[in-house]
Amino acid sequence: MPSCTDRAVDISSKSRKEVGALGESIAAEYLKRHGFSVRDRNIARKTGELDLIVEKENTLHFVEVKTILVDEFRDEKSANDDYDPSLNLHEAKVRKVARTGEWYVLEKNWGGDWQVDGILVWMRRRDGTARVSYLPQIV
Question: Of 56, 68, 107, 112, which is most buried by a Cβ count within 10 Å?
Answer without folding.
Answer: 68
